[in-house]
Amino acid sequence: MNFLFPYMARWNAINWTRYHQIFSQIAKLGHQVYVFQPPSQRSEETNYQEIEMPIPANFHLNEIALNQTLWKMKFPLNKLVKKGYYSLASTSQVQRFIREHQIDVMLLYNIPQYPLLNVKNCPIIFDFADDYIEMLRHELGALHRLQILRFGQYLLNRMIRRSNMTLAVSKVLGDKIGNTARVLPNGVDLSEFKAGSGAEIRQKYEKPIIGFIGSFEYFIDFNLILKAAAKMRDKTFLLVGSGRELNWIKSRVEAENLSNVHLTGGVPHNMISRYIDAMDICLNIFKKTPVSHSACPIKLFEYLAMKKPVISTRLDEVERINESFLYYADTVDELQASIERILEHPEESKSMIEKGYRVVEQKYNWDIIGREFVRLAEEAVAKRICLN
Prior knowledge:
Layout: E1 2-6, H1 18-28, E2 32-37, E3 59-63, H2 68-72, H3 78-101, E4 105-108, E5 124-128, H4 132-140, H5 148-162, E6 165-168, H6 171-177, E7 181-183, H7 199-202, E8 209-213, H8 222-231, E9 236-240, H9 246-255, E10 261-263, H10 269-278, E11 281-284, H11 290-293, H12 298-305, E12 310-312, H13 316-321, E13 327-328, H14 332-344, H15 346-363, H16 366-387
Parallel strand pairs: 1-2, 1-4, 2-3, 4-5, 5-6, 6-7, 8-9, 8-11, 9-10, 11-12, 12-13
Helix pairs in contact: 1-16, 4-5, 8-14
C-alpha cells in the first residue's frame, strides 16, 4: 500500500512521535510511506529542533512549498496560525501528489488539517491522538472564552464524521467519540530497547538515579519532581528532554541550588534507551489535566521495555493500562515514599518489572501496532469501495 502523511512538524526533529514509530514499522513491512513536512523555522518546540536521522527504505520525505515571508512572520496564536496556513496552502499539492503517486490512504491527526478533508479519491483515516480541544484551550490562554473553542469542536466533530475511519490512542479518548473509534495505542520497539547500553552515562552521576524522559511541556508536573528532589538531595534526579518549560526549570534548579538535578537537554531518539538504562527508577509524572488523563504515554512503555520500576501519577488511561506493575504518586510525600519503597524492596520491584515487560511485549509493541494499523487501513479502503 501507499500511505501519505501530511506532518505538521519537521520529521527529523528531536521529538520522536507516535507517527515516527508507526510509519517506520509500515515501511519495514514493505509499504511505501510518503511524508510531507513544512519548511523549518526557529522554535523552542522540540518538533522543530532538528537532528541528523537516517531515512528508512520505502520512506519518502517531501517539503511543502510555502510563502517564506508568511512562514517566518510572527502572528498572535502563532502556533495555531502556522499549522492552519500550512494545511490550507498544502491542499492542492497534496491532491496532485495523491493522483501522481496512487496513494491508497492518507492519515490526518489534528484540527488544523481540516482543509485536507476536501481532497478527492483517497480514503482518509483520522487519528485522535490527544485531547485536541483541551490542548487548544491551553494554547488560547486567556482567549479560551471566545468562540474559537466551539469552532474547534465543530471542526473536530466534522473530521471524525467525514473520515473513513477514526482511530483513538486511548480508551479515554475513544469513549469521547463513541463506538465508532478503533483504539490503537502507543508502544515501544523492543528491538531498540536493550539493557546494558547506559553504563557510560551511569558513571557520570551519583546513585541512585531517579529519571524522567520526555517533552518539557505544560502537562508534565515538574513542580512535583523538583519538590521531591529538594527533599531527597542524596539522590540524583536526571531529567532528559527539551521544550518550552526548560528555561523555567533551569532557573528553578539554579535558584534552589538543586545540585542533585541534572538537565541534559534534548537527546536523539537512538540515545533514549541508554539514558533509561542508566536510571534506577523512572518517572511518569503528569499534571492531572484532561490532556494527561487521556494520554497513552510512550515513555511509560519505553521505561517498562528497559525493565525499570516506574512511578506514575494516577491518570485515567494509565490506570487502565496498569496490571499491577506501577507505583503511584500524586504528592511529594507519595513520590518520596514510592522511591524509598522501590529501593528498600528490590524483590517486590523486580516482580512488578517482569509483569510490566510481559504486558508491553504482548500489547504495546510497535511491531504489533504497525501491523494492526495496516489491517485497519485495508479495512478503511474496502469500506470506501463498498460505499462507492
